[in-house]
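**User:** Here is a favour to ask of a fellow structure person. Please take any protein you like and set down a full record of it. No explanation is needed for now; the record alone will do.

**Assistant:**
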Amino acid sequence: MTPYLIGIVLALGVGLLGTFAGFERDRAYYATITIVVPSYFGLYAILGGSTPVLLQESVVIAAYLVGAVLGFQRNIWLLAALLVGHGLFDAVHGFLITNPGLPAWWPAFCGSFDVVAGAYLALRLRSGAVSAKPR
């Protein structure tokens, strides 16, 4: 299986798990995913032994953390946009930040996971199954 296919299958699995287990009823479910996804880049910077890269990755991680909190508090559509946006960011990440601990397959896997997870959330929002705003 290619990293793209694995990312797609896992994102669908996470989305379906959230739907059928009832996790998505809690607004924190998709916010938590939005926080965790970019945090792996920090882990890979640590594995690569680069403090300067960890600091660069931390800026992106912090931005996603703030975005996840805002999306959780105000409108979950922001979380869908952040997930898809991170998937697109994965495509150019290597041109912006050279992370020595990042596996070569990670951008393809993470990018496809993020885009599919964001699209799944958008479909759930559009169908009305997930409430976009706090109740």
